[in-house]
Amino acid sequence: MDNLQLAEQIERLKKKQDALILAHNYQPPEIQEVADFVGDSFALSRRAQSCSQSVVVFCGVRFMAESAKILSPQKTVLLPAVDAGCPLADSITAQELKAAKAMHPHAAVVCYINTSAAVKAESDICCTSSNAERVVRSLSNDEILFIPDCHLASYVQEKVPEKKIIPWRGHCIVHSRITVNDVQNMREKHKNALLLVHPEVPDEVRRISDFVGSTGQIIEFVGKSPCREFIIGTETGVLEALHSARPDANFYMLSENLLCVNMKKVTLQKVYDTLYKKENEIIVPEKIRKMAYKSLYRMLKA
């Protein structure tokens, strides 16, 4: 089948299987088009939690589908690309976190949403790139063990200087590619454009940007800005939402290689196969799920 036929069959199967299709902002355009909702990872997990459908097809990477399962244990959560992982999430294991906690017994553990269910289970509270500052401020501890993204940890340290942020060594392999030279080259080509970057970029890039925010915050900023030219420092998939929000504006990627290979592993054929066979179900052991749920719940209450 070609893409049009696959899309039609996916729509038919979705109704038959009582399924909801969720797609992350970084997914390929054709996946975003067949999705019921497109957004960032935690917003999609909340959407899965509130939907009436019994089956959720999560077009993203494994930690995202796990988060949906943690919040919605009664639902069947399917991951079309079963091998779609996240190197940032993989940069810390539950055992490594336990060892770090032993070294910093007075520190509260704040884990980024980009972590496995097992790591969330060992953490005190979860955070996203949009609420990390608020979450850290909500804690009474003076020391914060912030895992696993070192650049987001640095960003939070600048925003909350009264606390000691202890960073992990992880980083996003896409955002960490961006350099100051990339910024200088693009600013020279597009002198009137605003530079918008994700907080996972290196510190030296973040500090010379015009706006720092999550994918959702970048989309919101563009929608409200009077500017008509933007340089985008995050994964290229976000361009779909940006063009939709501002068809009158011009967008330039900060670098040519801002592409997450794992996010692009999802294809229409895989979505169709997953729906047809109801395969690649995400399973989170109940003990781990309950512990991980606490870290997500505390974030919602922060």
Main sheet overview: 4 strands, parallel
Q: How would you classify the helix and strand content by structural class?
A: alpha/beta
- Characterize the overall form: globular
Radius of gyration: 19 Å
The total domain count is 3
CATH class of the largest domain: Alpha Beta
Helix content: 40-55%
Q: Topology as H/E string?
A: HEHEHEHEHEHEHEHEHEHEHEHEHH
Tally of alpha and pi helices: 14
- How many β-strand runs? 12
Unreliable residue stretches:
none
Mean pLDDT: 96
What is the CATH architecture assignment of the largest domain? Answer: 3-Layer(aba) Sandwich
Q: So what's the oligomer here?
A: single chain
CATH fold naming of the largest domain? Rossmann fold
User: How do the strands of the widest beta sheet line up side by side?
Assistant: 2-1-3-4
List the helices and strands and how they pair.
Blueprint: H1 3-16, E1 19-24, H2 29-34, E2 37-39, H3 41-50, E3 55-59, H4 62-71, E4 76-78, H5 94-103, E5 108-112, H6 117-121, E6 125-127, H7 132-137, E7 143-147, H8 150-159, E8 164-167, H9 180-189, E9 194-197, H10 203-206, E10 211-212, H11 215-224, E11 229-233, H12 239-245, E12 250-253, H13 268-277, H14 286-301
Parallel strand pairs: 1-2, 1-3, 3-4, 5-6, 5-7, 7-8, 9-10, 9-11, 11-12
Helix pairs in contact: 1-13, 3-4
Describe, in plain words, how this protein is organized in 3D.
The termini are far apart. The strands form three sheets. The chain has a four-stranded parallel beta sheet, with helices on both faces. A four-stranded parallel beta sheet has the order 6-5-7-8. Strand 9 (194-197), helix 10 (203-206) and strand 10 form a beta-alpha-beta unit. It has helices at 3-16, 29-34, 41-50, 62-71, 94-103, 117-121, 132-137, 150-159, 180-189, 203-206, 215-224, 239-245, 268-277, 286-301; strands at residues 19-24, 37-39, 55-59, 76-78, 108-112, 125-127, 143-147, 164-167, 194-197, 211-212, 229-233, 250-253. The chain is α/β, with parallel strands linked by helices. Helices cover 42% and strands 16% of the residues. The protein has three domains: 3-86 and 263-283, NadA-like (Rossmann fold), CATH 3.40.50; 89-172, NadA-like (Rossmann fold, 3-Layer(aba) Sandwich), CATH 3.40.50; 175-253, 3-Layer(aba) Sandwich (Rossmann fold), CATH 3.40.50. Helix 3 runs parallel beside helix 4 (62-71).
